[in-house]
Amino acid sequence: DVKVTQSSRYLVKRTGEKVFLECVQDMDHENMFWYRQDPGLGLRLIYFSYDVKMKEKGDIPEGYSVSREKKERFSLILESASTNQTSMYLCASSLQRGLGYGYTFGSGTRLTVV
Amino acid sequence: AQSVTQLGSHVSVSEGALVLLRCNYSSSVPPYLFWYVQYPNQGLQLLLKYTTGATLVKGINGFEAEFKKSETSFHLTKPSAHMSDAAEYFCAVSENSGYSTLTFGKGTMLLVSP
């Protein structure tokens, strides 16, 4: 089975800090995604990547950036953390574009910004 | 643009009763449709998906869903609820094109009482 590993389950950071959330997948998937999950809002797409060094904005990219230097790793960066970025962050990967491939999700990182 | 509406943020059933979770979508092209389940403090797990072919799709843990194009629906059912089914369920849609990402509904929390 594909495994998507998020480096931290829980993080507490201070306002203004630069925060890195790391995600690694082990099955050579082309596509990787970052979502945030908030109660009553479901999952919202922040950024995604279809290839190394390639990135596309999702629905809510403001305040975030990403990095994909290697195929297996996709990092989400909060340039200056704010309290409204307190959330559950979910990383996902899929094999290829199109053809109805579903996503495989990591276990999530619950980030609290104080 | 694609979107998903899940009717009911919470659904309560008794153990052994029928489970019905509703999902309606909008899509300008033929859709791919998915149901995911999320147990507490975990990532999302794929339950089932519809891409093409048979409109009644069977998934894991006894769940199934039927794609009804005329009603733009993809409702999730299970004949007999089990306590272990208590979780949050997400419906998702992607368009049948090479560049489409998954769009999720806001989720439905299934509560199962003894």
Write out key terms for the chains shown.
heterodimer; A: mainly beta; three-stranded antiparallel β-sheet; 12 strands; B: 114 residues; mainly beta
Strand content of chain B: over 45%
Uncertain segments of chain B are: none
H/E series of chain B, N to C? EEEEEEEEEEE
Give the oligomeric state of the chains in this entry, treating copies of one chain as homo and distinct chains as hetero.
Answer: heterodimer
Tally the beta strands of chain A.
12
Short description:
The complex is a heterodimer of chains A (114) and B (114). Chain A contains no helices and 12 strands.
Write the SSE topology:
The complex is a heterodimer of chains A (114) and B (114).
Chain A: E1 4-6, E2 10-13, E3 19-21, E4 23-25, E5 31-38, E6 42-49, E7 56-57, E8 64-70, E9 73-78, E10 87-94, E11 104-105, E12 109-113
Chain B: E1 3-7, E2 10-14, E3 19-26, E4 31-38, E5 44-50, E6 56-58, E7 64-68, E8 73-78, E9 87-95, E10 103-104, E11 108-113
Parallel strand pairs in B: 2-11
Antiparallel strand pairs in B: 1-3, 3-8, 4-5, 4-9, 6-7, 7-8, 9-10, 9-11
Written description of the protein model:
The complex is a heterodimer of chains A (114) and B (114). Chain A has 114 residues and is mainly β. Chain A contains no helices and twelve strands. Chain A has strands at residues 4-6, 10-13, 19-21, 23-25, 31-38, 42-49, 56-57, 64-70, 73-78, 87-94, 104-105, 109-113. In chain A, the strands form three sheets. In chain A, strands 2, 5, 6, 7, 10, 11 and 12 form a seven-stranded mixed β-sheet that branches. A three-stranded antiparallel β-sheet of chain A has the order 3-9-8, with no helix packed on it. Chain A is globular and about 40 Å long. The mean pLDDT of chain A is 92. The model of chain B has no long low-confidence stretch (mean pLDDT 91). In chain B, the strands form two sheets. In chain B, strands 2, 4, 5, 9, 10 and 11 form a six-stranded mixed β-sheet that branches. A five-stranded antiparallel β-sheet of chain B has the order 1-3-8-7-6, with no helix packed on it. Chain B is mainly beta. Chain B is built from no helices and eleven strands. In chain B, 0% of the residues lie in helices and 56% in strands. The A-B interface holds A 4, 9, 33, 35, 40-43, 45, 48, 58, 90, 92, 97-100, 102-108 and B 9, 32, 34, 36, 41-46, 49, 51-52, 90, 94, 96-107.
